Amino acid sequence: MNLKDLEEIIKKFTIERNWRKFHTPKNLATSIAIETGELLEHFQWKDECENKKDISFEMADILAYLLLLANKCEIDLEKAFLEKMKINEAKYPADIVRGSSKKYTQYED
């Protein structure tokens, strides 16, 4: 199963329920933020993945809303990801940043 398959599953799910009318870009972005907060709750005061099933469901909710937002905004998420990774590779050359968590602006030229 690939990203396009997942997009079709969530699209079909929402069409069958007549929910697409509620899926404005703002509502979808808000839902991503809310679900991200719910994911963070599983890590409050913890450093480990203690309840992987619940964590996986929160991650799945985030992915579903992200796929819906990408569809609504007519963004090819796979293409955007690959383009962004190229940018990140240029910002963070492995031989320079290996083992460091600094932001790219903190490295000297």
In short:
The protein is mainly alpha-helical and 109 residues long. It has a domain at 3-74: Orthogonal Bundle (Helix Hairpins), CATH 1.10.287.
H and E string:
HHHHH
Distance between the termini: 42 Å
Oligomer state equals single chain
How many individual β-strands?
0
Rg over alpha carbons: 17 Å
How much β-strand is present in the residues? under 5%
The description of the largest β-sheet is:
none
How would you portray this structure in words?
It is a single chain. The protein has a domain of 72 residues: Orthogonal Bundle (Helix Hairpins). With 109 residues, it is mainly alpha-helical. It is 65% helix and 0% strand.
List the helices and strands and how they pair.
Elements: H1 3-16, H2 25-41, H3 52-72, H4 77-91, H5 94-97
Helix pairs in contact: 1-3, 2-3
